[in-house]
Task: structure prediction
Amino acid sequence: MSQRRKPIAGSIRGAAAELARHPGRTFLICQGILWAVALMVAPAAILQGSRSAAVERSRELGTDRIQVEVESGARVRLEVEDLDSIRSVLAQNYPQAVVSGQSVAGNSAIEGIGKAYLVASDEGELAARSLELLEGRWFVAAADPPEVVLEQPLVEAFSARERGSAIGQMLWADPASSRYRRIGLGGEIPATARAWQVVGVIRSPGEATVNPLGFAKDRRFSGMIESALQMLGVAPVEAPWMTLGLSLHVDRSSLEAAPVDWMVVSVDPSRVNPARSLIEETLIRRGKVPLLYANAAWSILASPELDGYLVLHDVFFVVTVVIGLLVLINLLLLTGRRRRAEVGLRRAEGATRADIFWQFLWEGVLISLVGALLGVVAGVCIAHLRAGLDPSPVLTATWPWQTAFEALLISIGGAALACAAPAWAVSDVEPAILLRDGR
Result:
């Protein structure tokens, strides 16, 4: 061990021993730090947990979703390059955003079922559209053999033919059979057919109680409201491949698909509006005339109120920090004042100013670290207790890591300063004077 590390290690051991020799004083200071930190952490745990719960609940209503398309018959269609541009632009300001694009690849038919929709897509569709995976997994891009994910009604139709589980079987599409691309599952695969391995099953989007933008389908006036919104350009006209449950989702690279018919972007509900503007500007610069749809419920109802609570938390946090630091510093300064005799005795025994400084510094660090850690745990427990007293889907608590880290830094810094600064100041006084004043 180097000579520099030896004094530091000795100072830490001396600080710990000094704290252990005075358990009453140590407990008093420690519990003061504990409750100050708990008051910082508990509101943050409730507010951040409730906001996260509200965001997740709102995602079920499609408030995180932006849907992009172009007018039917437009000369310039969306392309795969547009998806890459949107991903690149959003990655800078919205790193958690998910961008996906789907193309309906021509006419397809399944014997005994009717028209089906072969959808060329990508790995982001599951998250972007909040699709529910019932069995297996989503397909992997560029897999060998290529993979496909079926919607539940198709699986039920195939199962009615006593084929067993669809997972692991080969699904094929034969474009040479007729003007419709004939699709089959298992059996003999025609020489001219393309084949995919079934790896997953999703719930049909048409089985949801809300439409893709989160507007309820089972409400009395939902049809009238949706029609009005469509006239205003707020809600899109739903495509049958999105709602009938007869779609097969494959990797775009495994199929020569048409231009992108539909683009879906999932972002934080509270940031939908600025993200929507950014997407629109990007596509216009690329020469497209996009139609963008989003559910404005979050920005109108939830976001202002929750953002107001978060601002209130910031104010409460600052007030708690100021009051807590004042009480803590006064307590530690008073304690340090009463230890002048101890400092004088140590100086008379040959301790240097640096020895005094490091001992008091490490005492402050150790006691504030223990108190702050216990305070974080106590604050989170108080938050969970409060959430449990009045259960609600959007009232919950979580670990506010950033607030906890800030509280640790503030309490440790304040305690170390309050302990070490007076020690450094009085350690320069003659030991005889310190012993006389400390009596």
